[in-house]
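Schema walk-through. Below, the input block comes first and the output block second. Nothing else is stored per chain. Lengths vary across the set, and this one has 365 residues.
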Amino acid sequence: MYDIAIIGAGPAGSNLARLLAQQTQLKICLIDKRPLQEMQPNARRKACGGLLSPDAQKMLARQGLTIPVSILEDPQLFSVRTIDFDNRLENHYPRHYLNMDREKFDRFLFHLVPNWVEKRQGILFDVKKRESHWTLHLRTNTQTESIQTKTIIAADGANSFLRRKFAPNVPRPKKYISLQKWYPLHASMPYYTGIFDSSVTDYYSWTIQKDDHLILGTAIPVGEPLHERFEHLRSQIETHLEIPLRDETRTEGAFIERITHVNQLLWEKDGIYFVGEAAGATSPTSAEGFSYALQSSLYLADVLANEAIRPAQLYRRKCRKIALKLLAKQVKSPAMYHLGMRKLVMKSKVSAISTNLNNGFQKED
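--- output ---
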């Protein structure tokens, strides 16, 4: 019997396991479908830009964490290039990101979890509630098994299985498929590109250089023609940037969710706690999620470690800070996603207005 089972060992799950192991004597199990003990060169990878925004960097610093050089990728990025195909405008804005390898980052956080936390590889396919505990059914490559736990933490990302199963009536964020492809690059593009084109998506697209490759990515609403839209984007960017985008070396995909109202955030339901993307905590303007994964896991670790009398209520109260941040971004959203307002922002020389657009570009998760 475990005290806590954490489903998902991404940034939120691994960080929570690390913090709880440092602060408590709880028996913890950390479960992920990936073999995170070592790099898997040919493994399927999540579509992620692998950029740490200033907010995420601050959360790492607050928790005393630094990023090893071995995780970083060239070039480091100090500006955002904004291309607006709708309004035929283009601009550069100063912004500092840490450019990194997302898979290495996940494994870095995973390896910070102390050895006395039990780590399992498996896919959760069923959950049963008993009087005083939960029974989790896992599927591995060779077998199925069951474990029991007093508390469940949902850190299983966007399209969370636990959220779908236990909170079907809670409003859901709008769902997108993030698709990105890697292309050989024989030039230098030391900036992050944010791309607006309403014929591709009502969200945005991006390019990021990773050593000798360029990532081209976009987020398309579920149900819309993904590959046709991506091909249209690729053709436009190839012409606009005057670089060949052929012979992709890697294709990556993932679900992402975009909240349209803070009532779509879910921190606790029927005794299950939600952190990071599973809670809906990603930026509605940019899909940035690292900072909220680290912040929500920090708040939940504090609540559980101090054995609060009403832990769910206290956790929700702490997470109001996250909700207010996301609400502020929602208020800024028209400056990015309304064609007329975006045109004014991009033409404006007033830095305070330009910052609204600049702060939106934080493609990480």
